Amino acid sequence: MGKVVNPMRAWLLGIFFTLLFVAGPGEAIDSGARGTDASRPLLLAQALEPGAAGGASNAPDSVAYRVDTGDRISVTVYQEPDLSVQGARVKANGTITLPLLGDLKVAGLTSQDLHNLITARLLDGYLKKPSVAVSIDSYRLYYIKGEVSRPGGYSFVDGLTVAKAVALAGGYTVRASERSISLVRESDPETPIESVGSNTAILPGDIITVGESFF
User: Fold this and answer.
1) What is the pTM of this model?
2) 179 and 204 part of one domain
3) Is residue 64 a contact partner of residue 110, using CB atoms and an 8 Å limit?
């Protein structure tokens, strides 16, 4: 007579071999779960890289932002409040005034350039180990004109696109053509971009023109 198999034991063995098959040889179930979770930040990081979604990124922060007239900048020198300034506006001549250092030409510099410049100047006879932080508090205006409800100049915000700029300007008029939007970059005013999409990034100083539909 054959051996009687305990039904409960057979059920447990079936579950064990099923889990072993799913996990794969030499891999514990809980380590597999941790591996899945650990991959999520990597995937997120990849998605945030310029061009990860196919093509170059249109995000404003993918372009090295350069300071210009009208921006407001804060400079903090660690443990040196007398050398720090908050909300200093870049003057028409492209300079800001800092304690001890006087007027510094900052127009055209990135935040990192400005950090390096101030650090170097402080090292030159003022501080032995300056710790400097630079931030842009507010940006100069961008402009939108043509077939929008409220054309004019608007304060730049991070992540601005053509679609958001149009929304901030009250939306399109009834005569507007969404296929006829041009853009003049402040950085290259001699080469206007004749046709841009709704997701095109906008930077401070840019001029957006929404054309009129002829149909």
Assistant:
1) 0.58
2) yes
3) yes
